[in-house]
């Protein structure tokens, strides 16, 4: 089976290795370039907890002093895994959606609403988690510590690979990534090769982007369930 992955290599290398070992052909088309934002190191003592909606937020976390016991709310299992790899032990995963994360934070018995929460995120987000929590009486500071740039070019080798091995399954992990991928497919006249592909979308918002562009074979999945979705 030909499987196309749109995540940056750092987020998909483990998955691609597993898929390759199962005999699948892997096509890697990263759609976003992630880079750190230059900010002063964060004083963790100011905050009652950290909130992470992306693994990139923890990778780009710079602190004045390490605090591995800090309570960390994570959007899903993969983000929590990265947080724990960084040495944090007090973590809670919401199972993959920002709305579920908001509900877990809202109902937490471990938080003092008088203590400020640090929401670490990128420059482009699709859900105003900080505003939702503010409306519920929490004190929260949004700290943008990384940015994402849309990739607008496809190298010749990847273009040839898609032409020679049209993907059976495409995994897309964000609304912005979907927009970038659709633009790349148009720019390099690849749409016709992928009309029969199963496009696996991380959310309904991603599905809606593909629907507007006329794509048909669309499904949702949760990060970490890729092997289940391809039947392995």
Work out the count of structural domains.
Answer: 2
What is the correct CATH architecture of the largest domain?
3-Layer(aba) Sandwich
Which regions are unreliable across 5 or more consecutive residues at pLDDT < 50? none
- Strand percentage lies at 15-25%
Tell me the structural class: alpha/beta
* Rounded radius of gyration (Å): 19 Å
Main beta-sheet strand count, sense and barrel state? 6 strands, mixed
| Average residue-wise pLDDT | 93
Helix percentage range: 25-40%
Number of helices: 9
Strand order within the widest beta sheet: 3-8-7-4-5-6
Shape: elongated
- CATH class (first level) name of the largest domain: Alpha Beta
- What is the string of SSEs from the N terminus onward? EHEEEHEHEHEHEHEHEHEH
What's the topology here?
Layout: E1 2-5, H1 9-21, E2 25-28, E3 32-36, E4 47-52, H2 55-59, E5 72-74, H3 77-85, E6 91-93, H4 98-106, E7 116-122, H5 129-135, E8 139-150, H6 156-164, E9 169-172, H7 175-187, E10 198-201, H8 204-212, E11 218-220, H9 226-229
Parallel strand pairs: 1-2, 1-9, 4-5, 4-7, 5-6, 7-8, 9-10, 10-11
Antiparallel strand pairs: 3-8
Helix pairs in contact: 7-8
Top keywords for this entry?
232 residues, alpha/beta, Rossmann fold, six-stranded mixed β-sheet, five-stranded parallel β-sheet, 9 helices
Describe this protein's structure.
With 232 residues, the protein is of the alpha/beta class. The protein folds into two domains: 2-31 and 151-229, Rossmann fold (3-Layer(aba) Sandwich), CATH 3.40.50.10090; 35-148, Rossmann fold (3-Layer(aba) Sandwich), CATH 3.40.50. It is 34% helix and 24% strand. The protein has nine helices and eleven strands. It has helices at residues 9-21, 55-59, 77-85, 98-106, 129-135, 156-164, 175-187, 204-212, 226-229, and strands at residues 2-5, 25-28, 32-36, 47-52, 72-74, 91-93, 116-122, 139-150, 169-172, 198-201, 218-220. The strands form two sheets. Strands 3-8-7-4-5-6 form a six-stranded mixed sheet, sandwiched between helices. A five-stranded parallel sheet has the order 2-1-9-10-11, with helices on both faces. Helix 3 links the parallel strand 5 and strand 6. The termini are close together.
């Amino acid at each position: 089976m030909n499987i196309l992955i749109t995540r940056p290599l750092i987020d998909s290398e483990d998955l691609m290795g597993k898929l390759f070992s199962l005999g699948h052909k892997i096509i890697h088309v990263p759609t976003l370039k992630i880079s750190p934002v230059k900010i002063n190191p964060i004083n963790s003592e100011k905050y009652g907890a950290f909130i992470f909606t992306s693994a990139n937020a923890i990778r780009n976390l710079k602190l004045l002093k390490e605090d591995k016991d800090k309570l960390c709310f994570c959007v899903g299992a993969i983000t929590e895994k990265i947080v724990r790899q960084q040495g944090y032990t007090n973590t809670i995963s919401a199972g993959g959606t920002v709305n579920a994360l908001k509900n877990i934070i809202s109902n937490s018995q471990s938080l003092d609403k008088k203590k400020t929460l640090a929401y670490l995120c990128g420059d482009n987000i699709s859900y105003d988690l900080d505003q939702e929590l503010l409306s519920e009486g929490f004190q929260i500071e949004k700290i943008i510590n990384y940015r994402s740039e849309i990739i607008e070019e496809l190298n010749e080798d990847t273009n040839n690979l898609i032409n020679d091995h049209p993907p059976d399954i495409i995994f897309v992990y964000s609304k912005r990534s979907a927009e970038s991928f659709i633009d790349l497919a148009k720019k390099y006249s690849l749409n016709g090769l992928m009309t029969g592909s199963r496009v696996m979308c991380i959310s309904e918002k991603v599905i809606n982007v593909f629907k507007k562009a006329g794509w048909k074979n669309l499904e949702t999945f949760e990060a970490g369930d890729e092997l289940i979705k391809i039947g392995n």
